[in-house]
Write a structure and sequence with these properties.
The chain is mainly alpha-helical and 140 residues long. Helices cover 51% and strands 6% of the residues. The longest helix has 22 residues, at 86-107.
């Protein structure tokens, strides 16, 4: 598995104003700034030297009014998305896991693993279902 590196900078508005950092690809606003000028300054970090970038702002419904002001200030468009619920996230994780396991069963030789699983289940007096559930719990 190839390792990838991510550079991350967390800064307040005060610190961000004094930093000139090239090639900022994303700006995350965990709470929208109080005014349009601060918003424009924050997201401007992604557009230095003709580059493009993405600004993502987490906003509560009561803050949506401010986002419309930011749209006008930037002549841009802010697209709203609903965050997924805990249930939706869980369902997505299960579906992804199900797909990964199906691919392993389809494409890998599991003969040795089957023997190991059967021996573990027998030695621990576990049903195959309980052992599979425990392994899935560990994977998650």
């Amino acid at each position: 598995m190839q390792r990838q590196r991510v550079q991350l900078l967390v800064a307040s508005d005060v610190a961000a104003r004094g930093l000139d950092i090239p090639a900022v690809g994303h700006v995350f606003n965990y709470s929208p700034p109080p005014n349009s000028d601060d918003y424009v300054h924050r997201i401007g970090r992604t557009g230095r030297a003709g580059r493009e970038g993405t600004s993502i702002s987490f906003a509560r419904p009561r803050e949506m009014y401010n986002l419309r002001h930011y749209e006008r200030a930037t002549s841009g468009t802010i697209t709203s998305y609903e965050l997924p619920t805990v249930k939706q996230i869980g369902e997505t994780r299960i579906a992804k896991c199900r797909q990964q396991l199906a691919e392993i069963v389809e494409h890998k030789n599991l003969d040795n693993m089957r023997g190991i699983v059967e021996k573990i289940a027998e030695d621990a007096s576990l049903s195959i279902t309980d052992l599979a559930a425990a392994l899935l719990f560990e994977k998650q």
